[in-house]
Write a structure and sequence with these properties.
Length: 429
């Protein structure tokens, strides 16, 4: 590998992005050239919202400038072009997770996608839930994959059960056989915890659900942007993810499910676009996925999300994942090296993504975030819409640093150096 530095050779041998490749990627993201509080911006909040490259910004702007029109509703040229772009985006985004276009329902985010599915299971139909049925989720869930199921149980009389977390920061599956039973109709769980950063053993959970005929619903918000995801290979029935966490815009997300499952579910939002025949006495509905897409859709955002998918595919999700695993180890080692700081989640870097949540003894997370922001470092503070996780480990909130394909080793060092100043700043340690 003549011409490569030792670090680049090491990166290539491990399937990671080289420093030069990360530099080229960073050049596509205008915001990363910013300074904050007089310091170069170090953006470590991608688990909340990722930044967007010019290719995605240009795709959305180009569509708005040259092809903008209502889809599925007009015979004129612009309407045809907009419809083609919209449905092409559906095909590309669905293909990104190994599914056909008819499996993808556009939503405005993953939260709406999960609510759509939960609501449809409480409406009359072959999958309707009722008293005696059980829904199983886990103690590590984001509120988006917890609250909708709580509400579904309240509406239908079903019972909600949980897979607990162990002291090691991983799901405790030792009693899975007694939690997932013949009464279980839905097993809903996150692919990757947005706090603990652990990758869930999907195969084990899917096997337990299949043994009793339960549906499996995967919150894939923290996995689809960071590692290769194939719905058929995972064996789940449905997944949900958001565009703004994977280089796309806000206002766009997806529910991707087996077409056979979608065909069994009733619509939960009704009105224009999703209808077949409407009379004053009744209405028939279109086949999925359009059955679940009432009203004007986020067409420009869908086009932009398809461009984000193109970008990620060009870089390669395997290499993105390898890059983040490396950065995750650096983040974990760096945070653990700071006195008075406690990592939430497993202490080892295996089966994690490049995210680390932590608490600082004697300092509120908001104050931690402010000190880091003064150093130009952007992190997330709060409970990250996962209060039960924090309660399980005896804290009310945490600080979270999360890397992505544009994050560098030097930025991790800057973050760790800034973190070392937090407790001394408040006269502690």
């Amino acid at each position: 590998m003549s011409g490569f530095s030792t670090a680049e050779v090491d990166a290539l041998q491990h399937g990671r992005l080289t420093g030069a490749e990360v530099g080229a990627i960073r050049a596509d993201f205008p915001v990363l050239s910013r300074h904050v509080n007089g310091r170069p911006l170090v953006y470590l909040d991608s688990a909340a919202t990722s930044q967007r490259p010019v290719q995605v910004l240009d795709a959305e702007r180009s569509f708005a400038e040259a092809h903008y029109a209502a889809v599925h509703r007009g015979a004129h040229t612009l309407a045809g072009e907009a419809t083609d772009a919209f449905e092409s985006a559906r095909e590309r985004v669905a293909g990104f997770v190994g599914m056909p276009a008819e499996a993808l329902v556009w939503t405005k985010n993953a939260t709406e996608a999960l609510n759509l599915l939960a609501l449809s299971l409480s409406f009359p139909g072959p999958r309707q839930l009722g008293p005696g049925d059980e829904i199983v989720t886990t103690e590590q869930e984001h509120h988006a994959n917890l609250v909708p199921w709580q509400e579904t149980c309240a509406r239908t009389g079903a019972t909600l059960r949980y897979v607990p977390l162990g002291d090691d920061g991983r799901l405790d599956l030792s009693d899975l056989g007694s939690i997932v039973t013949e009464r279980t109709k839905v097993l809903a769980f996150s692919h990757v915890s947005n706090v603990l950063a652990t990758v869930t053993p999907v195969a084990q959970l899917v096997a337990a659900a299949r043994a009793v005929g339960a549906l499996t619903v995967l919150d894939a918000c923290q996995s689809v942007p960071h590692l290769p995801v194939s719905v058929p290979e995972l064996g789940v029935d449905a997944i949900a993810f958001s565009g703004h966490k994977m280089l796309g815009p806000t206002g766009i997300g997806a529910l991707v499910a087996r077409p056979e499952l979608l065909s069994e579910l009733p619509p939960v939002l009704t009105g224009g676009s999703m209808v077949e025949v409407v009379t004053l006495d009744g209405t028939t509905y279109r086949e999925p996925p359009q059955r679940f897409e009432a009203g004007t859709q986020p067409v420009a955002q869908a086009v932009a999300l398809a461009a984000a998918v193109d970008y990620l595919e060009k870089v390669g999700l395997q290499r993105v994942h390898a890059h983040e695993l490396h950065l995750g180890r650096l983040l974990l080692d760096g945070v653990r090296s700071v006195p008075g700081v406690r990592v939430l989640g497993p202490e080892d870097a295996e089966s994690r993504i490049g995210t680390v949540a932590f608490s600082v003894d004697g300092v509120h997370p908001h104050d931690v975030g402010q000190v880091l922001d003064d150093a130009g470092v952007a992190v997330r503070v709060g409970h990250h819409c996962a209060q039960p996780v924090h309660r399980r480990y005896g804290v009310t909130a945490s600080t979270r640093a999360s890397a992505y394909l544009y994050t560098t080793e030097a930025e991790v060092e800057t973050f760790v150096d800034a973190l070392r100043t937090v407790r001394p700043f408040f006269g502690l340690g």
